[in-house]
Amino acid sequence: MSRTRTALTLAAAAAAGTLSLASVSATAAPLPLAGSTTVTPAGHAFNATLSGKATLKAGSVTVTCTVSVSTGAVPAAPGNTNPAGPVSSPISAPTYSSCTSSMWGVTPTITTSGAWSVSMQNGSPITATMGLPTGGLVVQTSGLASCTVTAAPAGPANVNGTWSNGSPSTLTFTNASVPVTVTGGFGCPTSATSSTFNAVYKVTDTTNPAQQITVGP
Asked: pLDDT digits over 113-158, tens only?
């Protein structure tokens, strides 16, 4: 293409409003980096115990559990600090019991398996992400309806929540979305592809109960 033709093309583009330095600058702007995160006390073990109830809703069916526990440990130093991102640690697959269903005559049972994790990112609010392995949570119902709900069916999934420092600190999930598949017969919400998860966990330091698990910069 000749210089004259190139100049005319650029001029026409500018006149039509399709070429501007502002739009080029906006597209090229880098994303902000995540802030630093430190979880303390380094190396301490913890228990996450359900406070109140946990609910998992798929379609019109809600499963409610009143007992849930998971254990883990803060990474040992220096792994408990990330200068530009979250701090992650493995946790045991949470157990769920004392569960009921919103469907009359239906009893749910929840089984969990695989490698679970939790990561914390300092900020306002402090964000928390629970990592589920593929098929790591399965809800099976018996009684008037026989259904199977599998969470994270196609691959690992993240469940987003928030963290609050306190005595004890708390991990909260509010209407967090979880991908699922549902199989079964009459009464099963087989068209559901996601569920909502609600729960609050109290997190206590089991290495030294006088201390608290905290997240900071």
From this structure: 999 999 999 999 999 999 999 999 999 999 999 999 999 999 999 9
Dihedral, CA atoms, 46, 51, 57, 60, nearest 10 degrees?
A: 170
Whether omega for the bond prior to residue 30 falls within 30 degrees of 0, making it cis, is no
In tens, the pLDDT along 183-207 reads 999 889 999 999 999 999 999 999 9
Q: Based on the number of CB atoms within 10 Å of its own CB, is 185 exposed (0-12), middle (13-18) or buried (19 or more)?
A: exposed
Predicted structure pTM score: 0.83
Residues 104-116: b if buried by 16+ CB within 10 A, e if exposed: eebebebebeeeb
